Structures are given as structure tokens and as C-alpha cells.
Amino acid sequence: MIFSIARFSLYFQFVFLTLQGFDDHRVLALPKTSENYSLQMRPGAPFKIALFADLHFGEAETTDWGPGQDVNSKRVMNTVLDDETPDFVIYLGDVITANNILIANASLYWDQAISPTKSRGIPWASVFGNHDDALFEWPMEWFSAPGIPRLICPEANSTHSEACSFRGTHRLELMKHEIDHNALSFSKNGPKELWPSVSNYVLQVSSSDGPKSPVVYLYFLDSGGGSYPEVISTAQADWFRHKSDQINPDLRVPELIFWHIPSRAYKKVAPRFGIHRPCVGLINKEGVAAQKAELGIMKLLTKRPSVKAIFVGHNHGLDWCCPNEKLWLCFARHTGYGGYGDWARGARILEITQKPFSVKSWIRMEDNVVHSRVVLSP
Q1: What mean pLDDT is predicted for residues 50-78?
Q2: The predicted structure's pLDDT at residue 235
Q3: For the Calcineurin-like phosphoesterase domain, which residue ranges apply (predicted)?
Q4: What's the pTM value of the predicted model, to 2 decimals?
Q5: Per DSSP, which regions of the chain are E strands?
């Protein structure tokens, strides 16, 4: 499942990605290499990122309402993309609900989830959540009187019979599919020594002057769940330390961090009743469902002044940002109609400017309303 560099880096070509229907929106994707992926800011313009969290495509696919939720999720993404015209999209985990998908067709649902972004020519990156490679869960109503579950599969002599699998689709398979079939994807398999934790990588956003002028580094970490425990391991923390020291040794370039399941630090800063300053947000409807253990990553990040903010999903009823020492801990907004909760859907937006550097954020809702504006870095 090794990522094929030959698809991109051997050609060393600059590719302009122009949004369909938006003639003035253009972002330059620099050549991808094994060591670094780089996106370049447009001259005189900020760099805008849309975070799509907890889409849960494929949930309850055998019901009438399941496919309808996917249609609604696409509508939310289309609204956000049309209103905000971002330069980049980040899929912040739980893109699919693998534990509800009957056969090994997870990649088909993954393709549906990224289709609004892909159709507009916007580059994107993804990080895994706890549902993306979860094993199939047999509904009780499928069990017959003798206790044997019915197999809802193609006939044995069908050409599709080999797709009848309930084992789930592994992270490496999902990532390989995304990379192999999408030149616009900036996702990566991450270092082999961290597998089965897969989506661990860094992207560079460069100034309009070129790749030798980084404006911000975007770090992606796989917070587990599904096929293995919900943690960011000591090995992942070590990888971050070595990688960040290598590419940003003087801490001069700001850094933003993205993973799916909130760390335990989120529980410490969570507002108890409503949302009050210095926290900013609109919904605070549940407790923080944190990772199972804290194994060192937060200690590294809080001591690193170049790290400005961490962004997570997972909790559908939370959308706040709260300060934690010198960095911000932020939730995205539940984007998909799959998953629990009936709160209105939306997406967190990030806007990065170069001179002077700043990170601003707000939430764009499915009804076009904007709220919860906050400055995350001066």
C-alpha cells in the first residue's frame, strides 16, 4: 500500500487548479514530493480552508433514510463551498460510517463524500476518524430465529460476489484509493513505522513568492479509533517532534494541527454552562468525548510557541474554541447529516493571512448564516 510518488513528483509540473464557476479563485499546487507537499497562496489574498467534520457517509445504507442523509450532507458542503470559495478543504475524520456499510464498498461512499470538493477543482486532505475503518456491526433485526444472520449479498455466481465482505475497509486501503484516484488529494499514508496509524503527515502553505517562503505548516495526526485504540501514541508524538524540529527548527513558521478525537486537554478547558469569553462558539450540548489516554503529544504542543491551534471533530454537539495556555483548542462544526444529533449543520472556516500573519476562524452554517468569529493568532 506504499504511496506512489511517481504519479506526481516525477513530472515536476505546476498545476493551476481553478474552481469551476469562480473565475477569480485560483490556488497553485506545487509539485508533490515524498518529503513535502506544498500549496501556494495567491498574491495579495488570504488562504482559506473549510473543515468538513463527521460526514458519516454510508450510515444505515439499507434504510430509506440513510441515502437521504448523504444527499443532505452534500447539500451542506455545496452551500459552504459556494458561499466561502475556499482554497483548500480538510476532511476531519468520520468521512464514512464503515460499521453500517454492508459490503466492502467504503471507497464508493468516500468518493461521494469528496465529490463536492473534487467537482469544483479544490485540493483537499483527509485525516481518519474512529468510524472510517470500523468493523461492520450486525443489526439485531437481521438475525433469524436460529440466531444466524442473513447475508444481504449478490448471488454467488454474480460478478460482484467477491465484494461481499463484512470485514471493513482498512485505513491503508482507503488512503490508497483516495491517493491513486485523485490528483487533487494532498493526503498521505504517513510513515510506515506508525502504521496502523496512517494519516500522519505535514503540508506546507507557501507565500506567493514560492515554496522557499513557508507561511504556515499544517500537521495531520491519526487519533485512532475503529481498528485500534483512540489515542495519539508516543511514537506519533516522537514523529511530530522530529519532523517539526527538522522543517521548523527556529519556530519561525506558525503551525496548525488537525486530528479527529479531542485530547484530554479539551476536557480541562471545556465551558461548563453555555459558552462565555474567552471561549467562542454557539453550541455546548455534550461532554467532551476524549481520547483514551494522553501519551505526550499535548505536552509537546503546549510547549511549542509556533503551534497556534488544534482542530478536532468527533463531538457533534460542540463547536467552540477555547484557549489552552498559549494555543487554542477548537472543535469544527458537525457537517454531515449522518451521525447522532439534530443540531443544524455547518463547517468551520479558517482564514490565514501572511503579512502580518494571522489566523481567523468562523462557522458557516447550512442556511448561509455566519457566526462565532474569532482571531486565533494575531
Answers
A1: 95
A2: 98
A3: 47-316
A4: 0.89
A5: 15-18, 26-29, 37-40, 47-52, 88-92, 124-127, 201-207, 210-220, 255-258, 307-312, 321-324, 327-331, 346-353, 358-365, 370-377
